[in-house]
Amino acid sequence: xxxxxxxxxxxxxxxxxxxxxxxxxxxxxxxxxxxxxxxxxxxxxxxxxxxxxxxxxxxxxxxxxxxxxxxxxxxxxxxxxxxxxxxxxxxxxxxxxxxxxxxxxxxxxxxxxxxxxxxxxxxxxxxxxxxxxxxxxxxxxxxxxxxxxxxxxxxxxxxxxxxxxxxxxxxxxxxxxxxxxxxxxxxxxxxxxxxxxxxxxxxxxxxxxxxxxxxxxxxxxxxxxxxxxxxxxxxxxxxxxxxxxxxxxxxxxxxxxxxxxxxxxxxxxxxxxxxxxxxxxxxxxxxxxxxx
Amino acid sequence: xxxxxxxxxxxxxxxxxxxxxxxxxxxxxxxxxxxxxxxxxxxxxxxxxxxxxxxxxxxxxxxxxxxxxxxxxxxxxxxxxxxxxxxxxxxxxxxxxxxxxxxxxxxxxxxxxxxxxxxxxxxxxxxxxxxxxxxxxxxxxxxxxxxxxxxxxxxxxxxxxxxxxxxxxxxxxxxxxxxxxxxxxxxxxxxxxxxxxxxxxxxxxxxxxxxxxxxxxxxxxxxxxxxxxxxxxxxxxxxxxxxxxxxxxxxxxxxxxxxxxxxxxxxxxxxxxxxxxxxxxxxxxxxxxxxx
Amino acid sequence: xxxxxxxxxxxxxxxxxxxxxxxxxxxxxxxxxxxxxxxxxxxxxxxxxxxxxxxxxxxxxxxxxxxxxxxxxxxxxxxxxxxxxxxxxxxxxxxxxxxxxxxxxxxxxxxxxxxxxxxxxxxxxxxxxxxxxxxxxxxxxxxxxxxxxxxxxxxxxxxxxxxxxxxxxxxxxxxxxxxxxxxxxxxxxxxxxxxxxxxxxxxxxxxxxxxxxxxxxxxxxxxxxxxxxxxxxxxxxxxxxxxxxxxxxxxxxxxxxxxxxxxxxxxxxxxxxxxxxxxxxxxxxxxxxxxxxxxxxxxxxxxxxxxxxxxxxxxxxxxxxxxxxxxxxxxxxxxxxxxxxxxxxxxxxxxxxxxxxxxxxxxxxxxxxxxxxxxxxxxxxxx
Amino acid sequence: xxxxxxxxxxxxxxxxxxxxxxxxxxxxxxxxxxxxxxxxxxxxxxxxxxxxxxxxxxxxxxxxxxxxxxxxxxxxxxxxxxxxxxxxxxxxxxxxxxxxxxxxxxxxxxxxxxxxxxxxxxxxxxxxxxxxxxxxxxxxxxxxxxxxxxxxxxxxxxxxxxxxxxxxxxxxxxxxxxxxxxxxxxxxxxxxxxxxxxxxxxxxxxxxxxxxxxxxxxxxxxxxxxxxxxxxxxxxxxxxxxxxxxxxxxxxxxxxxxxxxxxxxxxxxxxxxxxxxxxxxxxxxxxxxxxxxxxxxxxxxxxxxxxxxxxxxxxxxxxxxxxxxxxxxxxxxxxxxxxxxxxxxxxxxxxxxxxxxxxxxxxxxxxxxxxxxxxxxxxxxxx
Lengths: 292, 292, 383, 383
Hints:
A: alpha/beta; 2 domains; C: alpha+beta; Dna Ligase, domain 1; 4-stranded antiparallel β-sheet
């Protein structure tokens, strides 16, 4: 088992003919992901190393049974592509694109929620890797192996750092989910934690948060009420000054709100152990896994 | 039993302080309808012959438990009032107002459908009368008595004509539902026919259609598939010239579409008896009721 | 409200939909001046709210001022299927490589706007729909979201648009949808939507129906109504706030409620009569409205007899009776009236009429009886 | 992007939100000319992107040209909580009967815009929220529907607005929402929103944050960015497309990925160091980006040591190493570097660095080790 992507994934890539799109599509395919098609308006009928390209998602779904989309188009076109995928019946949409206008995102989220039965991961995220099954996105799969640790994170490289430290200590992952660094992610910590809680393969959950918003605080409440599996957390940005956007559009301390300290406290108050460095997180996780 | 309005109705009237609003509210109340409140922005705190008036639907619902709204405000403000009622948790909205812009209606319908659990009757309709229980709208209740005939109609006065002819022959009505003459009614023939089919009190259904659109044709299909009770139909507008709007915004033959002849044919093809005059409709209905 | 072609094109231009440059004219001199300004060749087009102008000779190409004058003279005042040409539109001649079709209508069943597109333009779309339905690409639009770019592309691909024109068509449809929404139209239709040799898209015709109920929000559109082109009775009724449609028979009809009036027309027809009009005096008709309605009905001098069919709900029969008495006092009609009053305060109404003892007014007990009687009276009057 | 007060007001004016008439000035003479044009009394206001201007003496009323000159002289160049005043705004003095508060923000949890309103304006809204939360009326707006008239009324009633101002406030909020959507703002705040003695509503201040990601659709707004007011390093980084935030320490930081860089700052702080900056070289950083990043970091002359913390995913460690080698060739840095390379092509990267044998570059095996080392080196350099 795994969450969001796995052996049932039939992937269609929007923006497959762009250089980044082609590169990562082929990477994902080499990993074993079932990449069935791509979409680039105007390039229907071509192929990318054997992967057929269509003008519209509707046709890609009709002809290749795609159920998952990866969005690689530039920010100005990403909202349209997400809505197109959802309209065509795609159930899981992983949006890698960074820099989508916030009002576009609001419109997209509202529409997807209205449509129902569609999950959007991201945007501005590294994607989802389920080791040994499927990799949808840009997560470097080489550092991860199959195992029982589910990881959910607002940051890409930080996830690799933590995942790698866990792997070095001999443990693997069920799925690694990058929910992205935008102010309003399509999929939240809570959504993914709920999936991990229900996933039989996942034994322990690592969540890597950062400054800005209150998603970590809400996750803390959710964990206390609904999660039986151990959760280890990390929060980045203890030293971030207020009012400054730290790389991710969503990573900003506004006045006294969204600080790392408040998030760590909220998690610890609900019994979630919080590592102060990526290394500490890996150590705590391994300690729990060995004790279990 | 009855449909849409009945003894559980707790009515709140939007536009209660206007002269028409006051007149029909008091009429409805005198009939025995449970009129609990009214809404007129800026007149909160007043009352209309003991019926409390609020500035907002939210407050009217909170304080008087209203579950049904009647909309009597002018067309420019009607869409807003309907959305406000729905937002406040009102489940049944009867919009009497005539002349609401069509794009406002589209927006309202789409939003109500999205919200779910809200029924809009009308706009541009005479309302719903459930004899002996509740009258919400402007149907003159004096011509109708309790009984087993459910009437659904796009026209007000035509309904009175038919209803009266049936009453004169000794039969009464479960409910009389005016769905209104606008191109896109909130509640369709099919919706009401389904309610009558499920209503134990209703023995026979009369539907009065008219030119324009294909609601009658679709009702014919629905009746053939889902309705066990006898249905008698009337269609107005056999002599209407194409391209002319006959009073109701929705009553127009476009090219060769929406003619009375086509509708009558479609209904008869599915076994529904169609009377050619209101009197014939009453005669057929009575014949069936006496035979049953 | 239906717009004339050129009014529709001016609306399109406001929303950046490309249309040929042109000018309207109401006289031959104006037309020649317009043609000179636009340059030759230009097209002189009759402006009437009915199809089939081309076949009727209402569209002519002018190569020079002389031709422009000749065409304007021929077309102004021409009768096209019952409509007199009061205005013409002069526009630059377009080079046409391909003729397509695009429209947006209200789909009542789906409760959504419906975009229709076909590369088979320039002909009746209903014929295309009958013969080659697969040549029409359609898409329902979500009113809360609006037409999305992907939907425009999808329509283009499904419609078989050449690759280079997929995005331009998408943009064209987006602007057409914007027009539909911003102007609160019930219909926008471009037929033909042409492809020029430069591969540009252009609206060569424009059919626009605006929502009368929304005109209060669009003052500049409300002014497009051209009373001179309207039927005099319809204009008179419109000014009085009455719902009136002129028909070609000789029996004047008044009723309350659109459904009941339509039904009355049908019943009159069943008894062999021909109604002269549809007139809905409205719910809650007061005496004054009734008086005015009688004026409108009688201003049509084909009317030989009049039928009043009232089933009082909000409308009170005593008010109707008073209105009729007042109308007789003011107008003294020369034709017979059949009056059927039923419903709210019917006895009082009948009493008022009986007491007034109006000349040539015949009460009737039922709708059928009233219809039969008025038909008979009209026949007697014609004999 | 945060706007200055007057830029925000100009944006408001574009959407028919009433604001006092005013003019910006960048010099004393400009200010006096502006004041003369606007008339007296007028208000001279420092334009800085930080609160507390009034207390700091950055807002003064001028009764005549002499006072306007004196205030402009005092305020231009003034330092307000670390921000130098480069521009002032002169506006007509408003008569104030009441001070209210209105704002629209993005509510991340609800994924909807949130309208906030209070009749307790002119003070810090967070303080109002803490002390009298019931004095704030809020409403989430559906992005597909927009703010409906009834929602504006409801906010007004719940906020305790006097009856005569319920509709005006609704209209004000509707325009504020239009501004929020049309300009693609992340925040619009009016504090105070004043009531004048004539019972008119007016935005006396304007705080607007625009979405940087949407500026490509708003060219006129993109030009509002004022490079002269930006920190020189931040401007330099911005021009190179790097994500850089200046901090007040002495250890330069470069990493790939926002989360990893934030984490690096934290770990450096744990070892007692003070980071001089946040710099995310981005996913997939190529050699050239690395070279430019080193330039930006070193242009801050407080930097005593630099930490490279790379976990290669898309970013390849060999590219980073090549970029660093190239940076040393071009710039010849005088401060020590600690470099931690892990992830994609890490062995190749380490080999490149070892072979280049750059002066004063120290490899580290882990993030912790790297942080500890760079802190030690910075301390040595300061000693």
